[in-house]
């Protein structure tokens, strides 16, 4: 597991229609410890997606550095797994082959990558769906596949951009509980982007609040684990923390 | 649970096979109706057989050509030409279309050219094909290749360009290199458009084949129609036309439709017809 550091990271887009430069990220520095779960919140347009896409290597950055164990990263790579809001499953592959895709790219033989994929599907309670195609699954199931597909590749960092935004409220709570359980079992480093304050606090060890392309503040979340919604909705500490984060986001 | 599951599976399979029988009946019914009208109209108005044959005469012509083997010679020759031209067309067009789709600049530059040649594909190339290849096999295969090539290449290009960018990003962040991106994402992602291209291209090719065979050869379905005309054998002409239509339907039903069922329909990339 490796340490991820953002050093004075900045991104300026050129908008060809307006003919103007837009600075989406001004100056962001952040150190993420191995095995840490970080939530990033902030008002719409504050640069959350831009930061995640730079870490994932989907877009180049304009200034600063992104370091993984001290080495700069450029372009996408399997050591940084991504879970997409739109799921981005391959429609032409079965669930099993979607989850086995990362191992396949590493050259893992078929039998072994099927074994890995089945292990991760079991982790998400999806063993029965192994041979179905993504279009035959509900949104919640598709995103479970999206999460374990990224995990099955054993990334150093797992990047998630509002992954549960497009599923219904009940399913979302279940997915959040599953994610905390899986995280506790595997301890991947996670950067989780959301604009749902309760979600951010529920999942994370640390919540980073962004404002206009800068880090406004960071709040440690020392709630005990395992976390389940039935307990936390009644928990005073959870309510206090959520209220504090919410205040910051609204002031941001 | 297990029992009801399998019962449900069995009854839905039964429903599906009844449905497909019904579908076949619905498909054949209008064709049978047409034959029935034909069987009534020709004797009723006492149509001159040099203008249009009776059902019986066409049936007799069919039996003759089956008995003396000429039908199989013509069908075999035509199918071989179509098969070969189509295979060469697909095998060259798909890689080219993908290569074009990968680079936006190349795609933008070549798109007008491919639109232009897609319209010209097939028949319009017969004269120059006979100059290049002489009268015979080469010219006909070239016309078919040409009909398939431009349409399939253009559709493949479109297909690659419509693949959502997040899928490429997903593959790259799972460790896919350039080659894996091509084979695992771009090719299957473009398949709905490729199949559309093959369907359209085969339609052009089939028409091009008949036209080319009328001019450039001495065997094949087009040749069969053309020679029969010289002897006022309308029953042979009509039989040949029926064979051409039926062969096309068979190619569609036995080759293209099952291919679509097993791939793009299964994957939910197009609506079930
Ligand atoms: N490709 C682009 N070209 C020009 N400007 C862009 C581009 N992508 C994003 N921006 C701008 O950069 C800023 C930050 O966008 P970003 O998508 O990172 O915000 P976000 O925090 O993810 O917002 P949301 O919560 O709505 O998803 C916005 O002002 C946006 O308009
Ligand atoms: Mg965003």
Describe the structure.
The complex is a heterodimer of chains A (252) and B (273). Chain A has 9 helices and 10 strands. Chain A is α/β, with parallel strands linked by helices and 252 residues long. Chain A folds into 2 domains: 32-60 and 73-79 and 156-252, 3-Layer(aba) Sandwich (Rossmann fold); 86-154, no CATH class. Chain B is mainly α. Chain B has 2 domains: 1-46; 53-265, MetI-like fold (Orthogonal Bundle). Chain B has helices at 2-44, 55-67, 70-102, 104-120, 126-133, 137-162, 165-173, 178-216, 221-230, 234-265. In chain B, helix 2 crosses helix 10, helix 5 (126-133) crosses helix 6 (137-162) and helix 7 (165-173) packs across helix 8 (178-216). Chain B starts with a helix and ends in an 8-residue tail after the last helix. The model of chain B is unreliable at 1-5 (pLDDT under 50). Adenosine-5'-triphosphate (ATP) binds next to strand 1, strand 2 and helix 1 of chain A.
CATH architecture of the largest domain in chain A: 3-Layer(aba) Sandwich
Corresponding CATH superfamily of the largest domain in chain B? MetI-like
CATH topology of the largest domain in chain A: Rossmann fold
Figure out the total of helices of chain B: 10
- Going by helix content, strand content and strand pairing, the class of chain B is mainly alpha
> Biggest interface between protein chains, with counts per chain?
A-B, 28 and 23 residues
Computed over alpha carbons, the radius of gyration of chain B is 23 Å
How far from one another are the termini of chain B? 32 Å
CATH architecture of the largest domain in chain B: Orthogonal Bundle
* Mean model confidence by pLDDT of chain B: 88
């Amino acid at each position: 597991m490796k340490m991820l550091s953002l050093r004075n990271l900045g991104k300026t887009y050129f908008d060809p229609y307006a003919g103007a430069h837009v600075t989406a990220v001004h100056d962001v520095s952040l150190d993420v410890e191995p095995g840490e779960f970080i939530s990033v919140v902030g008002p719409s347009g504050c640069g959350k997606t831009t930061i995640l896409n730079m870490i994932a290597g989907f877009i180049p950055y304009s200034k600063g550095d992104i370091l993984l164990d001290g080495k700069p990263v450029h372009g996408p790579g399997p050591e940084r797994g991504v879970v997409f809001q739109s799921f981005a499953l391959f429609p032409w592959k079965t669930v099993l082959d979607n989850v086995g895709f990362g191992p396949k790219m590493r050259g893992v033989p078929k039998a072994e990558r099927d074994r890995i994929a089945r292990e991760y599907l079991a982790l998400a309670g999806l063993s029965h769906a192994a041979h179905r195609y993504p279009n035959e699954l509900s949104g919640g199931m598709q995103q479970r596949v999206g999460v374990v597909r990224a995990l099955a590749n054993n990334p150093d960092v797992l990047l998630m951009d509002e992954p549960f935004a497009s599923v219904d409220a009940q399913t979302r709570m279940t997915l959040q509980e599953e994610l905390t359980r899986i995280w506790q079992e595997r301890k991947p480093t996670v950067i989780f982007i959301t604009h749902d304050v309760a979600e951010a606090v529920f999942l994370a060890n640390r919540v980073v609040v962004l404002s206009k392309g800068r880090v406004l503040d960071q709040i440690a979340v020392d709630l005990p684990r395992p976390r389940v919604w039935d307990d936390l909705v009644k928990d005073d500490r959870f309510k206090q923390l959520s209220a504090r984060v919410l205040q910051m986001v609204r002031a941001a | 649970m297990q029992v009801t599951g399998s019962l449900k599976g069995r009854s839905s399979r039964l429903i599906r096979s009844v449905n497909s029988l019904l579908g076949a009946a619905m498909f054949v019914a209008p064709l049978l109706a047409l034959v029935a009208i034909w069987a009534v109209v020709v004797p009723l108005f006492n149509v001159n057989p040099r203008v249009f044959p009776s059902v019986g005469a066409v049936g007799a012509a069919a039996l003759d050509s089956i008995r003396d083997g000429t039908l199989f010679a013509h069908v075999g020759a035509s199918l071989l030409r179509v098969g070969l031209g189509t295979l060469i067309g697909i095998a060259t067009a798909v890689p080219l279309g993908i290569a074009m789709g990968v680079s936006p600049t190349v795609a933008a530059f070549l798109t007008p050219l491919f639109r232009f040649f897609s319209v010209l594909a097939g028949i319009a190339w017969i004269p120059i094909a006979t100059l290049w290849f002489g009268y015979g096999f080469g010219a006909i295969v070239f016309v078919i290749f040409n009909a398939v090539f431009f349409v399939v290449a253009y559709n493949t290009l479109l297909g690659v360009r419509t693949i959502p960018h997040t899928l490429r990003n997903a593959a790259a962040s799972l460790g896919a290199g350039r080659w894996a991106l091509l084979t695992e994402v771009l090719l299957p992602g473009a398949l709905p458009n490729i199949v559309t291209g093959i369907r359209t291209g085969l339609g052009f090719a089939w028409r091009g084949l008949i036209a080319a065979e009328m001019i450039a050869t001495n065997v094949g379905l087009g040749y069969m129609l053309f020679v029969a005309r010289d002897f006022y054998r309308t029953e042979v002409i009509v039989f040949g036309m029926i064979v051409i239509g039926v062969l096309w339907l068979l190619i569609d039903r036995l080759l293209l439709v099952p291919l679509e069922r097993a791939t793009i329909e299964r994957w939910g990339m197009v609506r079930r017809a």
